[in-house]
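Saturday, quiet lab. Running sequence design on the structure tokens for the scaffold JK sent over.
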């Protein structure tokens, strides 16, 4: 992975400053880089499943691989290639895993025993339907002597799809997606509808696996307790009901906006099959287990360790998850100030994760992480503070960057180039602002998909 701040390239005649980056920005970047290294997926799989001979440990309980005639896997999501590689490395050379990897782009280092499929994200496409059908066909070939791994990460909801009613077409599903993401419904409300129309969501892949032993491993950016939101919960009991899905349609006045084949279902709710619930034999704990491979706790732990190793007194705070970006910046800077006041003469850090809300108000290039740092530029001007915000998947919004970093000198450098942070924020053009200053963080896709990470440092 080529990690680092992008090179200083500015098409205008006036060149970017060549002054070396202040230490606090370097420190923030190093903490972010070391955090990414610590949440490496194959490494995490070896550590958490801790294979000993023919046994692996799932949620601390031993599972004997030698007891099965066949081991299969499907890996779905932005981290699917890394997860498949990690599983293959964990089991080799004694056990072979055959399976399917579904990703939004082609990946490298895919184990030879896996079939690669490219599908649509954030909107399902023909590849998504092909992947859904291929996975269902593979599951149909399993029996009680099969061990099946489901490797799930973010983006799986669109990457793998197949309608429960085969009269529903791909165009219908794409039209449904457009209606749902623009109606104002929450992700939980959107998933309630998706799950009740899909043959692969809301626990239905677990049912399709029949008598096979099923192990689901998740790399998730969803909060604890909401694991069924990961890839729309294909192997977990569905907490939503047909009544919930109908309620969303009514609440947002969606019926007339739905494609005809889907509208007909909601006009006759009794025709919509209920999703499998807790207590269904598919979720029998003797044959089914779910374990978070990497989640919020792992991200916080890695970032906290990296920050303290760099000799910063550090606290972690996830209070600002889903807050408006301006409010989140103010709150976290106040936390940083209080921590600094309590530790005079010491370098301090606040680590935060989760998403912030940054509505698009212009036609620029950017994302919520870049917007977070841009909002903070004037607020930290002249102070010995650095702000970093970046996506652990390496992508932020419409930009090619993961995020950006700024310090107390950023405003002055910007003004010397005629750049007004308020104007760039208003036009949702945060990437252009930080690119001109050589302060974007461009890792490329990391093959991981945990939550956004924010690092605030003061000395």
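Result came back. Writing it out in full:
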């Amino acid at each position: 992975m080529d990690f680092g701040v992008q090179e200083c390239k500015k098409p205008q005649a006036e060149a970017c400053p060549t002054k070396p980056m202040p230490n606090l920005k370097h420190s923030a970047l190093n903490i972010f880089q070391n955090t990414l290294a610590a949440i490496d997926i194959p490494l995490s799989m070896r550590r958490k499943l801790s294979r000993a001979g023919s046994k692996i440990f799932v949620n601390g309980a031993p599972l004997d691989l030698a007891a099965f005639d066949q081991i299969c896997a499907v890996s779905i999501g932005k981290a699917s290639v890394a997860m498949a590689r990690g599983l293959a490395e964990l089991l080799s050379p004694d056990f072979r895993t055959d399976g399917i990897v579904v990703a939004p782009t082609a990946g490298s280092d895919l184990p030879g025993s896996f079939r690669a499929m490219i599908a649509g994200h954030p909107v399902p496409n023909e590849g998504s339907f092909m992947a859904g059908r291929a996975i269902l066909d593979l599951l149909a070939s399993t029996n009680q002597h099969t061990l099946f791994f489901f490797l799930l990460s973010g983006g799986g909801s669109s990457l793998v799809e197949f309608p429960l009613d085969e009269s529903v077409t791909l165009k219908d599903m794409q039209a449904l997606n457009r209606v749902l993401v623009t109606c104002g419904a929450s992700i939980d409300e959107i998933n309630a509808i998706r799950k009740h129309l899909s043959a692969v969501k809301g626990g239905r892949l677990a049912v399709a696996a029949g008598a096979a032993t099923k192990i689901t491993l998740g790399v998730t950016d969803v909060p604890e307790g909401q694991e069924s939101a990961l890839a729309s919960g294909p192997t977990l009991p569905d907490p939503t009901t047909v009544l919930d899905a109908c309620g969303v349609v009514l609440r947002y006045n969606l019926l007339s906006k739905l494609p005809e084949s889907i509208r007909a279902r909601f006009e006759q709710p009794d025709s919509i099959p209920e999703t499998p619930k807790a207590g269904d034999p598919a979720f029998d704990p003797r044959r089914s287990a779910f374990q978070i491979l990497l989640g919020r706790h792992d991200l916080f732990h890695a970032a906290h360790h990296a920050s303290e190793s760099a000799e910063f007194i550090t606290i972690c705070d996830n209070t600002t998850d889903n807050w408006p970006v301006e409010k989140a910046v103010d709150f976290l800077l106040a936390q940083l100030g209080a921590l600094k006041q309590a530790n005079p003469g010491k370098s301090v850090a606040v680590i935060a994760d989760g998403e912030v809300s940054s509505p698009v108000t212009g036609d620029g290039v950017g994302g919520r992480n870049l917007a977070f740092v841009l909002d903070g530029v004037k607020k930290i001007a002249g102070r010995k503070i650095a702000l970093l915000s970046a996506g652990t998947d390496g992508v932020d919004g419409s930009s090619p960057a993961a995020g950006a970093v700024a310090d107390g000198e950023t405003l002055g450098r910007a003004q010397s180039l005629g750049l007004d942070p308020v104007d760039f924020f208003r036009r949702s053009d945060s990437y252009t602002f930080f690119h001109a200053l050589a302060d974007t963080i461009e890792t490329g896709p990391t093959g991981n998909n945990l939550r956004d990470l924010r690092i605030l440092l003061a000395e």
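Notes for JK: Residues 1-22 have pLDDT under 50 and may be disordered. The first strand starts at residue 55 and ends at 58. Ask whether to fix the surface positions before the next round.
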